């Protein structure tokens, strides 16, 4: 993602990186050259003139506008839903951390009996391990959504045995949630968590499951191919045919007009393509690495750790 | 569903399978031939010329654009809501599995009394049977939504008696949920589930009921017929009348223009038709078989099973 | 509602019943005749010619398109929200039935003491009566939304006293929920329902209350009159004035063009009117009778009853 | 609100009250007179002719259509959200009444000990007072949203002390909720409400808090001024400039065309203004008085009262 | 935010402050001057005439209208979501205050034993401190969203130690929530909060976490840069090129027409920019200071305090 939009109006006009231009420059150049060719033939040869008139462009323009608008909205909705899901991840990891720190406690009875320090160390360790697992889950989800197989990134947050066990798992984040769930049950059975409070923690795990499922849904289900292909075809057909329709009226400025119109339509089409899957690593995709690092820092600060990794800075103008 | 859209821009332009073209090629050919006929008559006979002018096409174009846009949005919303519901099924089956594995336990008291192994085997069997029922529910819902009567697909996940009992049921998935609910009650009465935790599991069954009801709603309630028929009529009227309106201006290129415009409008209309009911087996419908197989594999992996069926691969370019 | 849309493309083009045509044929005929008159005068008298030109039609066309699109979306949203609410009713009646069957039980203690059959019969009766009340609630809500006063339809599901008591009630479905709530409290006080599980059942009654309130809201609050009247006026003004604007350009084909344009605009307007209140008995309204019968059959099947009424079949092509 | 839209198509065309016309007749008359002036000058003086052509109107028309559509949708969304919130109020007051009547009970233990009538009268009084407070809350919220300071309307539902105490309160409905909350706590401490059931009632109070906050949000936050002023300016500019653009083409009919176009645009703009704040007392605003009276009657009927005030009837065609 | 829109229609037409004009006056002046230049050259030099015709403006106009409409909707959705989140903050702070005041109590047992006043003072202090922390959280969230480092504003609501501890925190509001959570746990362990009621309070903290996360999401994730830059470019390109397209037709009035069109398009674009991030201090941004002051006054009134700060009044016509 390109961070904080603080460009002046003028600088935005001239920006290249992070815009749709790199994606569409090939087809834009081709279309403009085609328009130059058509204009040249029309001005010189004279007797070759398939005049389509502007009628079809006005008529299809409506359908195209519907389609591009629909596509824009849908792609942005996917982008924004993805962002909401990761925002939910930020919230829920904070919530589950707070719950781990406050709802896991030594039972009153045992405290009185054996003096305070009976299990307090074991409980502190348990809390820390659980919060680390939440961090590990976040990183595992990021890797899962980006199809990256870097188990070593999870090593600081899980035990070696667990990391090993994850190797055979089809869905690693879910396996981590399962193991967190087993640990919570054990804590309940040991009396560290009140029976009334276990459902509260269980509920937070369900929310994480739902958030993950939402991300997987966006990733695995593109906009139906029939939409995507029809819109690509109509945009291309429109731009390729345009010079034949306007060369009689516009004359020598045909390539300029075609270039401008093609820039608009190809641009709209290309942006839709780019943000349709927001979990990739395109310039305008969501900065999952930045967010998961921020979660890591925030949660470790809750454990009163001070040896924290730095927040990620934009590389080459982009957050990843 | 056509999986992972990784076609280059150029290949998408030329794609046939999975696009709207197969659905509309008949009416597209007819309309273009009609335009050829009108053009031929106009150029040769000369004295037969009902000139509708382009006025009505511009005026109706607006209404048509509203309608097609509305239709597109509504159909896609239905498609995406269907996907969300099945995404919710993925999430909730994972959640209910996690809950079954952690909230069903031997009560502390009995353990102490008779040593650990008293009921632990019965509980392990119970857990496995319950998770299998969740898988069976998923497959039953898929068959239910596709009006398929293949009870044999449920046999591996339910007891023979249960499969037999499902034969007379109008709504088989609901019957499976009911029987799961009875088993949970029995487990609670035996002390395997804490009274405070039973509502948590019951809540998950309610979520499954809601997800199923959502799917049934989309399946049983099409977009009102008056919408569908009006849009079909207007699109057809528009395309059939178009040659009479533009032949005076566009002349010999009339069939080309009519073909392009009809391609756009018939295409938009046909796509809406195709994804309106997303639970069918059209190329752009939701891959329920693939999803339910994935759920099966994921849940059985949670039971530490290793003898798992393979995930489904696309057949002829499509997932089912 | 017109059931399962399985008409071929061609049959849909020629359909009359269930489309918007019956609603608008009067004004459509009037408008076309007006156009015939204007054309006749213009062609013969010649010196009477108020030429409005097509300018106002293009300019207002935009505003009209906004308005019709807005109206279409809003009406459909109301229709679909109504459908969702009744879908929620299907789900919640299933859920509450499952909860009644599994959460209402004889307390462990008493079983041991007096042998099993102490209260089991009373509990079975209680469960059945409660499920019957759920069915009765569904039918009462249907009658309530359709302003039908057929108390006799509720007689099979409630006691005679209760039916009598409903006579004076302003809001009968709410009164039924209240009496269900009292019975649940009694069951809790007798120990048939665990104190922790009573909120679960109470929550389901709250969901039913919310669903009913949603239906009442749609029914009692039409789209603001200022919207409806402005759109009616603009559509009529547009169609009445159209012949004066195009007769100079289109000539003898004016009535054809006016007819087509009026068909589109009146059609869009009429459909919005029809589905704005989805709880009526118009052809495109929601089939409340069919849904509530289906609920009845489903719930009674859960009670293992076999003497079930048939599901409703379409009458004259429509479900009611 | 204008109740139940049951006007025939023809009567709707001619309606004045409750439509947007009264709001915009001034500016509509002014604009039409301006057009008459411009036409007269153009036809007679001849040499004064600033011909803007129709180009700017077509080009701005697009931006204007976006803006009016956006405004329409946003205003209606605010109207409908307001209606949903008051619908939620209807539902939640019913739910909380049902909960008060069933979850507030004399504890089993005390009944046995001292015979039944020990506290049953006190509890009946408590229930009635609580339901009256719910009614009082509804009326207080209505007065709060309409900035009306009629404390006397709350007198029948609260004690004199409470009414007195409300005088100094900035937010009276919230103060009523707070006092209900204290009473529920007292009931719990006396054993009238089970500790497990107190959160259920508390949850209903939270829902009321959320509903009230939603209403306050709509009331206190208009659509940003920059939107409202830009759309007003563009609509006015458009209509004032229109005669200069079309008088050359349309000639003597210019005032007719300008009148029609201005009617459409001013109308759309005025409706947006009217329903933007739905809690006022304009003809198309929400009938808060009617709804709160209905809530009062419904809840008192639940207390088996028979001396009920009548439901409100439309005054001069409107509900308030 | 500009408060309560009560301007007459005429005054709104002439308003400058709070409208989009200040933001765009530079580019508007430049574009109009360019049009003056083009017109002057065209009228005098005559032989320099690149006539683009109006075709490209009509064709791109469609794409532009899609884009501006999309941008408008998205920006307003962000604005309104931000408002909803702060509305949720108002609601939840009220709810959590009510819960603190009613669910934190001295346990029955201890009261009887040692007479009433045993811990009642400590509990009153605890309640007040907790409510103050809720107020402190609100102010901290405001400062956090506006990147303001004024810790001194929190001093009246937190202890000096706590304020000191906040200095090193990356996310101060979350740290405050964490400390509230610890205090609630302590209160539960002391018996001041019932074990069943702790999850109710914990749930309210989770809602606050979610609301804060939602605000952070809006703040940190702008609309993708590729959208923003494409729309800026197309609007500018359109307005700069417009005089070349219309000067042949419109002649000497070209600057007027260009000025009007540019006013519309720049205006729409500028408003989108302004409210995209609603947590700033622009005239149309959300009045976070006003809302958090109102929360402070409301909550302190619930503690029966009378020495309250005044509600904020608009400064220079704006609320902040």
Automatic annotation (TrEMBL), chains A, B, C, D, E:
The keyword DNA repair does not apply. Pfam families: Bestrophin_2 (PF25539). It comes from the Bacteria. Coiled coil: none annotated. Keywords: Cell membrane, Ion transport, Membrane, Transmembrane, Transmembrane helix, Transport. It is found in: Cell membrane. GO terms for cellular component: plasma membrane. InterPro entries: YneE/VCCN1/2-like. The chain crosses the membrane at residues 50-70, 252-271. One of its GO terms (molecular function) is chloride channel activity. It is a multi-pass membrane protein. Belongs to the anion channel-forming bestrophin (TC 1.A.46) family. This is Bestrophin. The lineage of its organism: Bacteria, Pseudomonadati, Myxococcota, Polyangia, Polyangiales.
